[in-house]
Design a protein that fits this description.
- With 326 residues, the protein is of the alpha/beta class.
- It has 13 helices and eleven strands.
- The strands form four sheets. A five-stranded parallel sheet has the order 2-5-8-1-9. A two-stranded antiparallel ribbon has the order 3-4.
- The longest helix is centred in the N-terminal third of the chain and has 23 residues.
Length: 326
C-alpha cells in the first residue's frame, strides 16, 4: 500500500472517529481533554483513570461514549463493603438440577465505569486486575472471556481521602492514561447552566459500532513510527529510572521511575495522537503531548518533591526538557 492509499484510509477512519466524537460533544460541554482521553484509551486498547472532583460529567461522558458506539455499559459504585463476587459474579446453586451455575457480574460489559475505585478494599481492586489485564474472569473452576471491546474507566476524587484505599502502584500501572479533569471555563459553565435551565440537555445517538472501533484500531496500528522516535520513547522512560538519572537536576524528585509498560503505552498513544492530527506518521510532538497522561501515575515522587510542592507533571516537564529530541 502506497502513501496515498494509507492517507486515504486514514482520512476515512478519521471521519468515522469525528462522527463518534461530535456525537458525545453534543451532550458534554467542553472537557475536550477528557473526551480525547477516553477515545485515546479505547483506541490504544487500554483503560483510563479519571481524577476530578464530583460534578464534572465524568459518568455522563462514559455513558455517552457507550451509547455512541452501541456498546453495553455498566456503572459499578465502589464502596468499602463491596465484595469481589459483586464485581465478577459467582456460582449459584440451582435446586432443580442440583448444579452450581455461574451468574456473571456487571464486569461482563463492553464499557465499565468503576466509580470511586479507591473506596473499595484491595481484595476487590485485585479482582478487577485480571479483567483489565487478561480480558477474562474466573468464576469457580472456569474462566470466561470478556466482551470485545472491553474498556474500564475508573474515577477517583482527589480531595477526599477518608475511608479510601489508595490504589497500589501495580494497579495504577495497568491504566494506560491518567486524565486530570478540570473545572469548565466561564463560557462553558454558562452554556451548561442554560442547557440545564431550559431542559435542552441534548441526546446521544448511535454513531459507530464495536466493529468500527476495531477497524479504527487497525488503522492506527498501521501508523508508522521512525526508529529515532522509538529511541526517543525508550530514552524518556529510561531517564525516569534511578540508574539513568544521576546527572539530571530532577533526579532527586523521583523515587521510582516508570516501568517498560510505560514505553509500550507511550508508543501506542503517540500513534493515536498522530491519528487525531490526521498524520500517518508519529513526530516527537505527539510523544510530548501524551507523555504527562501516560507517565504521571507511573512516577513515584520523592519527599523532596513533596517538600518543594512539585507535582508529577512538573517533574515530567523537566524530564521532557532534559531528554534530547530527535
Amino acid at each position: 500500500m502506497d502513501i496515498q492509499q494509507i492517507q486515504e484510509e486514514l482520512n476515512s477512519a478519521r471521519q468515522l472517529y469525528s462522527r463518534a466524537r461530535d456525537n458525545i460533544a453534543a451532550v458534554i460541554v467542553g472537557q475536550k481533554g477528557m473526551i480525547d482521553g477516553l477515545f485515546m484509551g479505547i483506541l490504544a486498547g487500554g483503560h483510563v483513570l479519571l481524577e476530578g472532583v464530583p460534578g464534572l460529567a465524568k459518568t455522563l461522558a462514559v455513558k455517552s461514549l457507550a451509547q455512541s458506539i452501541d456498546a453495553s455499559f455498566k456503572r459499578i459504585q465502589f464502596t468499602p463493603d463491596l465484595l469481589p463476587a459483586d464485581l465478577t459474579g459467582t456460582l449459584v446453586y440451582r435446586q432443580q438440577t442440583g448444579e452450581f451455575v455461574p451468574r456473571k457480574g456487571p464486569v461482563f460489559s463492553n464499557i465499565i465505569l468503576a466509580d470511586e475505585i479507591n473506596r473499595a478494599p484491595a481484595k476487590v481492586q485485585s479482582a478487577l486486575l485480571e479483567a483489565m489485564e487478561e480480558k477474562q474472569v474466573t468464576i469457580g473452576d472456569n474462566t470466561y472471556p470478556l466482551p470485545d471491546p472491553f474498556f474500564v474507566l475508573a474515577t477517583q476524587n482527589p480531595i477526599e481521602h477518608e475511608g479510601t484505599y489508595p490504589l497500589p502502584e501495580a494497579q495504577l500501572d495497568r491504566f494506560i492514561l491518567k486524565v486530570l479533569v478540570s473545572y469548565p471555563g466561564v463560557e462553558e459553565e454558562l452554556e451548561i447552566l442554560r442547557r440545564a435551565g431550559t431542559g435542552n440537555l441534548g441526546a446521544v445517538s448511535r454513531a459507530v459500532f464495536p466493529g468500527d472501533i476495531r477497524r479504527l484500531q487497525e488503522v492506527i496500528q498501521g501508523i508508522s513510527v521512525d526508529g529515532r522516535i522509538e529511541v526517543y520513547i525508550v530514552s524518556l522512560v529510561s531517564a525516569s529510572r534511578e540508574k539513568q538519572r544521576g546527572h539530571n537536576s530532577y533526579s532527586r524528585y523521583i523515587e521510582f521511575g516508570a516501568s517498560p509498560r510505560a514505553a509500550i503505552y507511550l508508543y501506542r498513544c503517540a500513534k493515536v495522537q498522530a491519528f487525531f492530527e490526521g498524520r500517518a506518521y508519529v513526530i516527537p510532538e505527539d510523544v510530548k503531548a501524551v507523555a504527562p497522561a501516560v507517565l504521571r501515575h507511573r512516577i513515584v515522587l520523592s519527599y523532596e518533591a513533596e517538600s518543594d510542592e512539585l507535582t508529577a507533571d512538573d517533574v515530567i516537564k523537566n524530564l521532557l526538557g532534559a531528554v534530547s529530541v530527535p
